[in-house]
Amino acid sequence: MRQYNSLRDIRADIANGQVSCKQLVEQYLRNIKERAELNAFLEVFEEEALAQADAVDQKLANGTAGKLAGMVIGIKDVLAYKGHSLQASSQILNNFKSLYNASAVQRLLDEDAIIIGRQNCDEFAMGASNESSAFGNVLNADDHTRVPGGSSGGSAVAVQADLCLASIGSDTGGSVRQPAAFCGVIGMKPTYSRISRFGLIAYASSFDQIGFITKSVEDAALLLEVVAGKDEMDSTASQREVPPYSQLLTSDKKYKIGYIRDCFEREGLDTEVKDAILGVKDMLRDAGHEVEAVEFPYLDYMVPTYYILTTAEASSNLGRYDGVRYGYRSDNVTDLTSLYKKTRAEGFGHEVQRRIMLGTFVLSADYYDAYYTKAQKVRRLIKEKTDELLQAYDFLILPTAPSTAFKIGENTANPLAMYLADIFTVQASLAGVPAISIPVGRDANGLSIGLQLMTRSFEEPALLAFSNYILDKITVEA
Ligand code: GLN
């Protein structure tokens, strides 16, 4: 069977009798088994996916199939899928099963997507390399000695290695975009609030957003179209109408594009990544777009602000894992305090514990103003400056990450180095604006380079159309 890069191709082959959903699922299941060493899936829903495939084949035959019929998708282990295990790649949620579907998952099912399995990720989505999962590292399919990025590492590798057509993950500070960049696929984080977070395990609630990993822009658009929109289960989800994103993918407009000079002048930015992104910038200028360097003075404050605020929110959100209500509970306890302490010490991994401690510290009475309040103010400045730039420019372009996929173990001893991997992705998260990573080239080691585009809130149609345009142009010029 051929390898598919979009639902459109799959649907065309289904229509002319070349393939069925059942055959597709069988093929993906074979691929998953053959590439088991990648460790992309924590659980594969073999029987269920096959049964779903049969049901969708029937619907396709009688003309009642939904928009996502033929799409075989994996879900990151932070999204609730009723009756299935949900662990955020953590021991603390051992034996926990979802009692309901996340709204996003429900909407996928309503449109006949086939869910093939639950994907590995960093524990509680905290990480940039998938090395903090309680269930082992995920390997980058391009080079097994390298990380896939994180936290949605399993989701990105699954798409990279053709273990499913698409994945749905979460992006708090880059967790969809950065692994997509490391794995040579597309990763999109919509505007904060565009998608309901009901049923998404909370990490940092004022940042968390569901996103997609795909091989085509059209699939990302289709998924967004299906999943976005108001939800009575999440009052923070935007009430705005959902445009038909997948019908809005062409644009012949000449845009005004800013590239953040400070990002490109930054020490630590890999020169091959820099050259690739600047090459695309020149290509856009040659094609008649207006491209200008812009100043963004807050680059050095981005990572500290992000980590103060997200650890603060995480320390509060993760308070619920206490061994009393659900998941893991330590055996050797003497009283309630020791139950809490032992359960949390044994159930959470090191990175999660570090963040809970950091978050508790920045929220403590003596330091609250010095850290938390101050970081809130800096976030406001970053947001205002980003919005101001996005009033003057249709898009900002920058690298998704300062390097290509790094070696497994390279950053584990130095959390600060790991946090700096997020330097270019956290801006969109702090500002709440939509952003996407698209693959624009490879370095001398054959590792993928991602270009990031940011735009104004709720301007996903333009973001998707322009991404499509750039990818087409790169293919034509290659
Ligand atoms: N690497 C970032 C962090 O560890 C981003 C994680 C995410 O987006 N979930 O917080």
Automatic annotation (TrEMBL):
Allows the formation of correctly charged Gln-tRNA(Gln) through the transamidation of misacylated Glu-tRNA(Gln) in organisms which lack glutaminyl-tRNA synthetase. The reaction takes place in the presence of glutamine and ATP through an activated gamma-phospho-Glu-tRNA(Gln). Heterotrimer of A, B and C subunits. GO terms for cellular component: glutamyl-tRNA(Gln) amidotransferase complex. GO terms for molecular function: ATP binding; glutaminyl-tRNA synthase (glutamine-hydrolyzing) activity; transferase activity. Coiled coil: none annotated. It comes from the Bacteria. Signal peptide: none annotated. HAMAP family: GatA. The active site is at residues 76, 151, 175. It catalyses: L-glutamyl-tRNA(Gln) + L-glutamine + ATP + H2O = L-glutaminyl-tRNA(Gln) + L-glutamate + ADP + phosphate + H(+). Residues 24-464 form the Amidase domain. Its EC number is 6.3.5.7. Keywords: ATP-binding, Ligase, Nucleotide-binding, Protein biosynthesis, Transferase. It comes from Pontibacter ummariensis. It is an enzyme of class 6 (ligase). Belongs to the amidase family. GatA subfamily. The keyword ATP-binding applies. This is Glutamyl-tRNA(Gln) amidotransferase subunit A. NCBIfam families: gatA. GO terms for biological process: translation.
